[in-house]
Amino acid sequence: MLVWRLTPSRHVTTALTGDGASLYGGRWNRKGSAVVYLSASLALATLEVVVHITGGTLPHTAIALDLPDEEIERLDDTALPAGWIDDEPATQAIGSGWLGGGRLALAVPSAVLDRRAEAERNFVVDPAHRRWRSVVEVCRFETVIDARLG
After folding, report:
1. Where are the domains positioned within the chain?
2. Is the per-residue pLDDT at 85 higher than 90?
């Protein structure tokens, strides 16, 4: 499955390590848990970045990866608590609890789009998983997020 990562270009060398997520935590991981966040499309990856941008745009690097379908576990959306979008500790517990399991990636709904949009998923990837190093990078290019989105 083709998946996307959009990262500020100044962080491109660590974009696939999980270091940033480990330092700061995220929607699906607690601080100290290294994960890499990917999206099903470049458009969704852009939306996921734009909701956090304040004060202008910076150069970003888009990275496309080929994630093995058989290594993706899908989160059962019905298991999410009511109000999960505003309950980051609950989603962090789910994602951090999933780490170290059998699969490389966990498909999760986006908090930016309606979760009924089945094709628009984000992926929490375990960079410590044995299969992570075998994931193939398809392409990489610099881009600037349109200022109208910020």
Report:
1. 2-149
2. yes
